[in-house]
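Hi Y.,

Following your request, here is the sequence exactly as I used it, all 345 residues.
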Amino acid sequence: MSKDLDFEELLKKYDYKFQKGDLVKGVVCGYDSQGAMVDIGAKTIAIVPVKEAVENNEKLEEKLEKGKEYEFLIIREEDDEGRFLLSKKKVDFAYSWKELEKAKESDETILGTVAGVVKGGVTVDILGIKGFVPSSQLRETEPEIGSKIELKILTLDSQQNNFILSNKKVYDDNATEVRKNVFSQIEPGQIVKGEVVRITDFGAFIDLGGIDGLLPLSQLSWRWIDHPTDILNIGDKIDVEVIAVDHDKQRVSLSLKNLEPDPWLEAEKQIKEGDKVEGTITRIKHFGAFVEVFPGVEALLPHSEVAEMQNEGKNILKVGDKVQTYILKFNPTDRRIALTINEPQ
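Below is the corresponding structure, written out as tokens. Let me know if you'd prefer a different format.
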């Protein structure tokens, strides 16, 4: 073979047409201070910078193993040394985004990892891409970081590279048939098991195995409760009584206190007008103080009597104080007791 033919064959060997934006395949052949070195068939070795290959906690050698072939995106054409700059993360991102688009189109349920809690919701990681779940679209008030939750994509913006998801929609979509079955079987008076899934100022929502029933604050205990968290936590498994079912609105009302003996029935046996009783102040209002005179039974000490007691004791009454009073009036039917600090004549 002539020298001219040798040179021509050599030119063909290095006849490549790579440019910025091209997808190329290459074999990892080593590592240096900049990142991973990749053979893509060019005349020099291409470089994948660390930031274009791994996230914060990942190791470059594990993400791009030596001797293995991967697909890369050319993000910068040849420099003065003839080297191309590559990105692995951008390729992964593109493929992940395609998967998200397919999931959105088919309304598919996908699994995401809670990455952080931010104002108005949580961020989740899905296929290496961060998405946002608004608080209004969460079934749990605040899921733990690192926990897995099922999600459906609400919006997907490829130009801004962001997407919004819903955890609640998964439950709503899957629970339609389950709700029908549960509502066909549930009725007032039943004792059912449930799990506390959400807590609000006015009560707690209990998952009854496909539907959420409301356990109002007033039905938590015979004793005065300031907030449901005083006695309940998310995830608690409890027995509750069904007290009302609205099939049209698909609502179920529940009671926890109905599973305990009614303290007013016992109080009626043990308390009578004129009795001297010691009680604990549970609430103070502008019209008087509520005093627990029997476990789970509150009586009202009028404001005028509160003022008189404070003047005599020269101190301000507060919640938790124990006071000595007399039963002035006792109406067990209406469940009302009036107190006085002076012994009735």
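Helices lie at 3-13, 60-63, 89-105, 168-185, 263-270, 303-313.

Thanks again,
Q.
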